[in-house]
Structures are given as C-alpha cells and as structure tokens.
Prior knowledge:
Layout lengths: L1 H12 L6 H27 L1 E4 L3 E7 L2 E6 L3 E4 L5 E6 L3 E4 L3 E4 L5 E12 L2 H6 L4 H17 L18 H16 L4 E13 L4 H38 L6 H16 L17
Antiparallel strand pairs: 1-4, 2-3, 2-5, 6-8, 7-8, 8-9
Helix pairs in contact: 1-2, 4-5, 6-7
Amino acid sequence: MIGVGVWLLATGIHPAKPELGQAQRVDGLNVLLASLLGVGVFFVWKGMFTMAPNESRVLQLFGRYVGTTRDEGWRWVNPLYSKAPVSLRMRNFETAKIKVNDVEGNPIEIGAIVVWKVVEPANAVFSVENYPSFVAVQSEAAVRNLATHHPYDGHDENLISLRGHTDAVAEELQREIQNRCKAAGIEVIEARIAHLAYAPEIAQAMLQRQQAGAIIAARQRIVEGAVGMVEMALGMLSKNKIVELDEERKAAMVSNLLVVLCGERSTQPVVNAGTLHQG
C-alpha cells in the first residue's frame, strides 16, 4: 500500500504533459486514491493493539458482545470493535474497620484483607456497574455478617470464635465473599481478619471479663487434673496393697491432695503426730 501511495504521489507530481482538463482529472483521481489509501491504513491501524500478560479485552460491536481476547502479544481485531481492558492480575485491599456486635451482643471492631482477581472479564464488565467497588462493598458486608455469627472469644473448643479460630474464620469469610462475588466473574483467593478488637467503650470491662473467664477455665483444668491424680494415687495404693485405707482416711487423703494440687501457693508440710481418730 505504501508503494502504491508513492506511485500515486509521483504520478501526480510528474504528469506526462496531458491536456489541462485531463491533467486536472488525473490529479483529482490521484488525490482520491491517496485519501482512500490513507483511510484504509488508518482503519487497519486502528484494529491493532498489544496485550501484556494477565490482561484481557472485552470486545463489543455496536453494543453487542462478540468475545474476549486474552492472548498476549500483538493482536488485530475488527477496527469497529470497542475494546474494554480488564486486568487479570491479583489485587488486594483492606476493608474499613467496622463496628458491629458479635453473636453475644458485644460491640467489636473488625476489618479484613481480601485478595482477589477477575477470572471472567465479560461478567465483570456486564454484570455489575463497577466491579472493584462491588467487591469492596460485598467484602464489608461479608465481614459484618461473619462477626454477627461468632463470639469474639470463647473457651468452648467446639465453638468457633473470631479470636481463637483464625484459620476456620478465614475459610468461612473467603467462602462467603466468593459466593457474593461469583456473579461478577471474581475469584476470591484469600480473605483473612486483619483487625479485631473490642469497641473502645467496653474494652476495659471486656478485658477484665476475658481475664476472669481465662482464670475459670484454667481452674477447671486444674481441678480435672487434680481429681485424676487423686484417683490414680488411690488406685495404685489399693492395687499394690501398700496401705489399707478406710473411707474416712480416703476422704482425708483426697482433701489433702486436692488442697496441695489446686492451691495457688506452695504448701507447708505439717507432721501429724496423732491419728485421725481422736478419743
């Protein structure tokens, strides 16, 4: 095409001395052909574009979806196609710190980090108005819903708490955000709690409550262990026939052992010079 253009220009500049009217017609024809050639070159050039890795273009023809291209390199499509770019790279963002009540009614502050990417560019363009904003709003809604279904903290191992079961909570959050964003062609790669705290107005009171709950749970474990040790001691004494104990002596031994095992302070040994039976 470039060679034809050069030939036309050369022909227009150096006519073969025709008559004046014929020369004007030749010049007009050359200008027309050169213009058509320029339009053709521009038309072909407009359909060319380059694609980097992890990029895509959503193609439309007068408002009608015609396809999506993801192949990297130098590409060419119908110049009449509109080409909406959609990145396929991973993205991440941190939600705002949301104040919400947990399942026990305690006001807490919670925020999360979400890692996501587009896997269906056409859905991202046509299903929602603004897919990055859509992901952000749905993520905050999922975080709020998650917080209302779990306690901030819990001493029951079978109960999933926000603070004590981070992996389980992260998996649940990831699934919920994925379900909310699936229609927009979004894949949620990871979602994890990034900020978790009691609301400032109850932070001190809840800290005391949390400490009291921890003390109670620890005491319960201590008592369970002490009872097991006393039971084991009585069983070994009886099995090995080291000493014969009646019910009263067993009760006294159990009492002494529980005091020793469950007491906060170290015990002071006391030698009993008499017997359990007085008088």
